[in-house]
């Protein structure tokens, strides 16, 4: 009696239907077919997309073809929807003299007409798969336009889906998201935030520790200020995109989200976050005025805080700016910072009198500058298209440069949005006044602050502190030391 392999595959797209019922109907039909041809059989079944080639049950079947005379399937597309892989399977079936049986009829691959029929049906299956994917993609975008969450079966941390696929806030999880954004605004690194969340016992929905990669992804996810975003790709290129604001209740404000994006962008240019536990008030703020590199702090043999000598190489020459006692530098910087109290008080007084002209002018100038940048990037996009049409650049070069330019356009648009929000907030400046009052009070107590708290506070308005002893590090202790350079680069 001949032996047959029955292969049952349920498509991922059919999972929304009754899986058990579909498999049962297919199994009955193929078992009946095997009995009609008086075949004994083994059954292989799995749930997988027809386009995948690494299917466990199918590969197991193909590795055992020596044992079988027939392959029973509901249709050719159950074997594969990928043309190239379908041809590989066909070659294996011919080599092992396997005949295919389906409820619609048999296919003897030793006959040329049947071999062509198999290839034609595989080609149709591949075409049908692409059409299904296209329809699903369009349906997904249409659902996203209605503010429904269709990006994945699971809602992002902080949300759950209602019966209409709309996101609703889960307060117990939302507090984690707010903490991440708040700490980022305080310039705390992702690594330190992860440690703090672990200490608080806050976990992911599945109970796992939230890692730096989780935090990095959360900080960039627009869903948290109420956005539903979806796109359709063809050959890895975005051909259609949906971006719907106010689709659901935000967990953080749009302003907070954009401010965090600005901080993350700034951090690419330098170290703006506390990556280690802060033990000194000026930690991660001191930079060499000679070579521009960061200056590091250490304890000397007597336990005194010391700014290390600089030994960075510049154009094959080593910067040898001498080290210096740390405490006098800290005292000088703190004294300069305390002088800012008058500036804060002046701004607060102006705000209380609703005189926000200077701040508005500053934001308007910033907005004008950003608009010019945006226009420049738009012109660059037009030039790229002209260069492509004239054959000055090839397709891959055009796509690469175009995607990079579009990313710059996106960033500038975000900055423009932030400036516009800040302009709007000038008309309701209670929050700004509150922050200024907190800053003034903090300045009054700055000498009593713990190093980490003071360091966090200083980084809200100090970008860098340029320092140099203006002396080469060597063993000559009798020379006259020039005055040191200490310059503060304010934000």
TrEMBL record:
<feature type="coiled-coil region">
    <location>
        <begin position="353"/>
        <end position="429"/>
    </location>
</feature>
<dbReference type="InterPro" id="IPR050639">
    <property type="entry name" value="SSR_resolvase"/>
</dbReference>
<feature type="domain" description="Resolvase/invertase-type recombinase catalytic">
    <location>
        <begin position="3"/>
        <end position="147"/>
    </location>
</feature>
<protein>
    <submittedName>
        <fullName>DNA invertase Pin-like site-specific DNA recombinase</fullName>
    </submittedName>
</protein>
<keyword id="KW-0175">Coiled coil</keyword>
<dbReference type="Pfam" id="PF00239">
    <property type="entry name" value="Resolvase"/>
</dbReference>
<dbReference type="InterPro" id="IPR038109">
    <property type="entry name" value="DNA_bind_recomb_sf"/>
</dbReference>
<dbReference type="InterPro" id="IPR011109">
    <property type="entry name" value="DNA_bind_recombinase_dom"/>
</dbReference>
<dbReference type="InterPro" id="IPR036162">
    <property type="entry name" value="Resolvase-like_N_sf"/>
</dbReference>
<dbReference type="GO" id="GO:0000150">
    <property type="term" value="F:DNA strand exchange activity"/>
</dbReference>
<dbReference type="GO" id="GO:0003677">
    <property type="term" value="F:DNA binding"/>
</dbReference>
<feature type="domain" description="Recombinase">
    <location>
        <begin position="156"/>
        <end position="270"/>
    </location>
</feature>
<dbReference type="Pfam" id="PF07508">
    <property type="entry name" value="Recombinase"/>
</dbReference>
<dbReference type="InterPro" id="IPR006119">
    <property type="entry name" value="Resolv_N"/>
</dbReference>
